Inverse folding.
């Protein structure tokens, strides 16, 4: 690609997009070292500072990783969540295939710790593993009042839970979540089917409809080396009176 220095599109951005394109078409594969800053500078006819800016943004986006003394390498793609989306939808948008393994699906008395939030006698407990291209990425445990649900079975729960809720007339408007890092122990190694410890992040979320109705509580654990949750934080300006 020739960089158009007369274009209104910044030079570093043109370079960044071409590097991304080369990765997408397989010129540089996952785990492979891309050209050095010097080589990129000479090949594209741009300054080293421009190259550094393009690579810096690609590192921030999780597309590349720098290894001191070795070079810059292509990262394995991560599942990224930015907005309220089902896991199935997120993975599909990334161009990959997902599958779900149901560990538990049962009707239980509402756990005491949830009774204030979910004041119902019984809830469904749904425990699922979310798998992407053969690797367990997440473990999700959902509690939803039985009164809110129509017919469900294990086969239906292998798909998008958000889409299933739509058949009951519910759409999730927003989620209130708390996140924390956790240490992988032997039980998690078994759950995620790994031999070595990998970083994990735990999410506890309350999922609500547009009218503020708490629909279900979800406790999820994700492999944070495979999954990225991007959070946008806004300051709400108070009304001037």
């Amino acid at each position: 690609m020739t960089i158009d220095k007369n274009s209104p599109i910044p030079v570093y951005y043109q370079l960044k997009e071409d590097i991304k394109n080369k990765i997408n078409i397989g010129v540089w594969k996952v785990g492979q070292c891309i050209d050095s800053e010097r080589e990129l500078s000479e090949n594209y006819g741009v300054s080293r500072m421009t190259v550094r800016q393009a690579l810096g943004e690609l590192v921030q986006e999780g597309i590349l990783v720098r290894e001191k003394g070795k070079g810059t390498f292509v990262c394995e793609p991560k599942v990224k969540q930015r907005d309220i989306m089902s896991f199935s939808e997120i993975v599909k948008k990334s161009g990959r295939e997902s599958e779900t393994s149901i560990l538990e699906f049962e009707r239980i008395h509402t756990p005491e710790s949830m009774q204030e939030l979910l004041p119902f006698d019984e809830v469904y407990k749904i425990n699922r593993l979310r798998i992407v291209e053969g690797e367990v990425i997440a473990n999700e445990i959902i509690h939803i009042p039985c009164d809110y649900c129509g017919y469900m079975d294990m086969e239906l729960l292998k798909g998008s839970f958000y889409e299933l809720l739509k058949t009951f007339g519910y759409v999730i408007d927003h989620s209130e979540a708390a996140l924390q890092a956790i240490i992988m122990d032997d039980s998690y190694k078994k759950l995620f089917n790994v031999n070595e410890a990998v970083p994990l992040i735990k999410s506890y979320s309350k999922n609500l409809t547009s009218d503020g109705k708490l629909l279900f509580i979800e406790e999820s654990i994700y492999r944070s080396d495979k999954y990225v949750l991007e959070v946008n934080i806004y300051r709400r300006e108070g009304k001037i009176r």
Observations:
- The two ends are 56 Å apart (CA to CA).
